[in-house]
Every structure is written in structure tokens, then in C-alpha cells.
Amino acid sequence: MGRHCCVRAEVYGALLFGYAFRPDEVRVVTENGALAARLKLLFGRLFGFDFDQRAGRPDVGKHTLVLSDRGKLAALFETFGYGGSPDVALHLNNAVLENDCCAAAFLRGAFLTGGSVTDPEKKYHLELGTPRAHVGRETITLLREMDFAPSLTARAGHTVLYLKASEQIEDFLTTVGASQAALALMETTVEKDLRNRINRKVNCETANLSKTVEAAMRQTEAIRRLRESPLWETLPAPLRETADMRLAHPEEPLAELCALFDPPLGRSGLNHRLRRLRELAEDR
What's the pLDDT tens digit per position in 266-279? Predict the structure, then answer.
């Protein structure tokens, strides 16, 4: 579970990004049974008491943890430096996050109750959502101090912080202790990059092949027109040789066609001859 200060910071993050954090009630609603069990253990270690209610809804997959006992609530808010203030949770108490390890633990708690990651096969997107606007903005400051570059938006009454760069998401997951998830994301990123490179190469080769075929078709069509015209008999021998070679090998790219001549032609020389044949066909 880590050091006492980190346990406090993780619970703090979980509550600030949870459902309700008020002087009269603390409530966390989650679909993750493991998270509900973890919060129970953290509460026991930090405060020495449990939630007042722990209800599970197997039919909808939700777990609700509620703390409403006034004595327990007073101890909880005192632990986080709020005392009996009615303005609890309006601002982030940075005294709870004074150590680097505590900042990471706070983000872990925030992510467990208010975070999500989109399937990286679809897109790169990690977000943290809280119903407390000031907490959201101050958490952005914390993230920037930790070299993250989050963006901010509002959605359905929540302040949402999000990361969209795969490297940033990997670093965040590593920071909060989800190293296996970070490694899985890295593997997915590498696989996607490899597929994209292969697709780009295939598309490029396909485009080049299409251009080669189209050019060869234009050349053979021009040569056929020349052969049907009186001009054919007056062509110099090199041009007639080139025309016959292209007609005999209509699908060969220039590099392979050059090698069929005896002696082999250079690419520029063959290009010049083919261009001259097309010009003559167009001028006839």
C-alpha cells in the first residue's frame, strides 16, 4: 500500500475525483469491484474505520461506498486539512501532496475513481473527470509541474483533463503505478506504427506501379499509331528498335526494359527515345 503519506494522498485523489465529497457525505460509485476493495483497505489503514455503507449492485455492476457518520466525516476532513469548513473540495490542498511520491499517489487515486483510457487501437486518449471545477484546474497545474501537457474541457457538469499523446499516456500510467498497462500501450503503439509504415509503403508502391502501367499504356498506344502511319518507315533505327521492344514487353518498367537492349540502354536514353516516339505520334 506504500507509505502513510501516499495512502493519504491516494485516498484524497479518489475522493476529490469521486461522486460526493461534502461535510455531510462522502460517496464513491464505481463499477470496479477491485477498486471498492482497495478503498476499503486504504480507509482502514488511514483512518482506522470503514465506510458506513458498502452496497453492490451485481445486476448493473456498480459498487457504492458511503460515509455519513458525522464523527468519521470530521476525522476525514481534518486529515485532509479542511476541518469543518463548508468549502471542502473547492480547492486542492497542496500540503497533502508535498512529496513527489504523494503527487503520484494522488493521481493514482484520481485516476481510479475519475479516470479512463480509450482503446489505443482506436485512438490515444486518457482523461480524468471531476465535478469540482477548481480541483480540475489545480490538478492541471500539478500535472504540468510533473512535465505533463494536459488539456481541459467541460462535459456534463464535470471538468475533464485529458492527454492525447501516446508517450504522455504511457508516462502517466507509469507514474501512477500501472506499468503493465503502460507496456501494453507501448506494444500497441509500436504495432500501429509498423502497420502504418507498411501501409504507406504498399500504397506508395501501388501508386508507382499504377503510374508505370499508365505510362507504358500511353507509350504503346503512341507506337501503334506510328506503325499505322507512313512515318513509321522513316523512323531512325534506334527509335524503331525501341518501339518494337516496348510493344514486345508492354508491362515492363523502364529499368527492366533498359536491360533487354543489346547493349543495355541507360534509363535517361530510353526515356528520351520513348518521349520522342510519343511526340512524333502526337504531331503526325
Answer: 989 988 988 888 88
